[in-house]
What does this fold into?
Amino acid sequence: MTESNVVFEVDESNFQTLVIEGSKSRPVLVDFWAEWCAPCRSLMPVLATLAQSYQGKFILAKVNSDENQTLAAQYGVRSLPTVKMFKGGLPVDEFMGALPESAIRQFLERHVEHESDRLHARGMQAYRQGSTDVAVELLQQAHALEPDKLRIRADLAALLAESGDLKQAQELLDALPEYERNQGEVASLLARIEFERAAATLPSEGSLASGVAGGELNALYQMALLRISQSEFADAMELLLSIIRKDRGYQDDLGRKTLLKLFAMLGDDPLVEVYRRKMTNLLF
It folds into this structure.
């Protein structure tokens, strides 16, 4: 793809067509520059090279700010170079100054679409339409193209878990760095997978009843897991609190750790705040 296909000189006469309307079909990166600006001259070839290397995933529009002062003022340009990303007819992001190429690539990656993004979008649409098998296949293709994309990996793991493939779902998430495993949707999904895998080996409710009545810690713990599998979360939390109350050190603080995993799984459910307070009062 040549520079002429992806890099354009833009002024007030064609800004509406090339930038505003053009950005409704693909991102447009607008470089506000001036002849007297040395950083502008060093930045421009970097942007042009990137526009070619991305092969049309975005368009580069160069606006001479001295010759198009109305445009520069309209979009709040106060220093040069200023580079703005337009999508859907609107400026959505910007940076100022002659950043290194690596930093500009990071900026671009937030906005350009890749084949993996298209496969991901198709997969999630298939899932919403009830075609889970098709969705899993499409997300697996997307993940193979860009295995480092967290959103694709997390959605694929969630669909695998829903389909019953808990082992592969957990393997996908376990491969993430620890800080990503311990927050947000990933932490919630890991907790759900762990609880579902544990539920598959639990004894029946009837066989646990006498042990629970007698306050046996292992029975209390297993009953809590059973209640989680039944979505009886308040009951499960009460059982876990009773374990903490009876023996904080039981199996290396298992009652508290399990309660925290349940909090992670439930996210912003109102029960979490209620029982987090109860746990704090009990511990401190």
